[in-house]
Structures are given as structure tokens and as C-alpha cells.
């Protein structure tokens, strides 16, 4: 495994924005695990898979699924689905399906394979605790529910997706509940991860805190 910087945290904490900036600053490759899970959810829903379907049903679809993350774009079975996977319903189903072991096992291989060829900045919910427990540097990025809901609200608004601030907050709270209490790979801060609360910090301030941390001993 080459150098891996793992950034974990709840939905809306700013992981994607920060991970991209850190990767660019260090010349590492950025890998968005959330996009991989959204792509899987998109594929499963496209084949009418329901959350209550058994592992055999999910596995049959995953066996025909190829997901690639390249240059910031998500390719699903040869088709660019980068924009489609950001829909509200896919955000919901990605969290639901990510709790299934068959899905997590499916995506574990591609993530680990990527670390054999490139120095990575990888972000998600269990990258430092489960996927890359041996990562050289781990960060847990957090923010208040109110701040994360506002970020999600404006993110959807910029994309032309209709949602109220209250709906965004309810979605964040429900996502937190599912991610924290699921049986498989729950959201959790790795013991050796640096905790950063970005609620009252600018993007630049968060970036500099992380860069100061990751450059130690690298």
C-alpha cells in the first residue's frame, strides 16, 4: 500500500471538498468512496432492487456491475453517471444499501486496489476505521447538524434540486442515525484520527489544519 490519507465524517461535513483540495495540494489521487456507493445504489435501483431484497438478489446485480472513479467522474458500466447519482433518492438509497455486507465487500476490493498504484486521499465514513486501518494519516471531519443541513440545502439548490432547509436537516439527522447505528462498519472516529469540527472554520482554515497534520512525518 502506498501513502493513504483517510478523511471520515458524517454527511455534509465537507469531506469531499476538503479531500479534493488536499489531494491537489499534495499531488495525490482523490478517491470519493461516497460516489462509489451512490453508483452502486443507482445500479441496484435501476434494476428495481429493494432494500429488503436478500443478498443473493443484490449479488446477482453486483456481479454485472463495474464502477470506476476517474478524474472526478463516476463511470458505471461504461456510462458517466456523475450527475445522476447526486439525486436525493440516490443519497437515501446509498446509505441504506451501504449497510449491506455484500455491497461493502463488493467495493472493498476496488478501494484497496487503488492504493497499490497511487498515493490516495480517500474520504467516506469508515475509511480510517475499516477500509484502511493502516492509513498513514487519518482525519475525522465533523460539523453541527445545522451547518451540515445548510450545506446540503445549498448544494441541492445549486443543482436545481427542490428541497427545504427543514427537509435537508431531517435527511441529515436520519442519515446520521443509520450510519452510526448500523451493524456493519458504522460511522466512527478511528482512535488515532485527528478530529476537526468545521462548523466555524473556513474551507481554507480546515485545509491548513489538515495539511499541517498530514505533513508531519510524511
Task: Give me a quick take on this structure.
The protein has 218 residues and is α/β, with parallel strands linked by helices.
Key traits:
218 residues; alpha/beta; Rossmann fold; 3-stranded antiparallel beta sheet; 9 helices; 8 strands
Describe the protein's topology.
Elements: E1 4-8, H1 15-26, E2 29-32, H2 33-46, H3 55-62, E3 67-70, E4 73-76, E5 79-80, H4 88-98, H5 101-114, E6 120-124, H6 127-131, E7 137-142, H7 145-158, H8 165-181, E8 194-197, H9 203-214
Parallel strand pairs: 1-6, 1-7, 2-6, 7-8
Antiparallel strand pairs: 3-4, 4-5
Description:
The chain has 218 residues and is an alpha/beta fold. The protein has one domain (4-211): Rossmann fold. It has helices at residues 15-26, 33-46, 55-62, 88-98, 101-114, 127-131, 145-158, 165-181, 203-214, and strands at 4-8, 29-32, 67-70, 73-76, 79-80, 120-124, 137-142, 194-197. A hairpin with a 2-residue loop joins β3 and β4 (73-76). α3 (55-62) packs parallel to α5 (101-114). The protein is globular. It starts with a strand and ends with a helix. The model has no long low-confidence stretch (mean pLDDT 90).
CATH level-1 class: Alpha Beta
Query: What is the succession of H and E elements?
Result: EHEHHEEEHHEHEHHEH
| Unreliably modeled segments | none
What's the β-strand tally? 8
Determine the CATH superfamily: P-loop containing nucleotide triphosphate hydrolases
Main sheet characteristics? 5 strands, parallel
Measured distance between first and last alpha carbons: 14 Å
Biggest sheet, spatial arrangement of strands: 2-6-1-7-8
Shape call: globular
Domain tally: 1
| Beta-strand content estimate | 15-25%
Helix content: 40-55%
Please, what is the average pLDDT?
Answer: 90
Round the Cα radius of gyration to an integer and report it: 17 Å
Structural class: alpha/beta
For the record, the CATH architecture stands as 3-Layer(aba) Sandwich
Fill in the CATH topology.
Rossmann fold
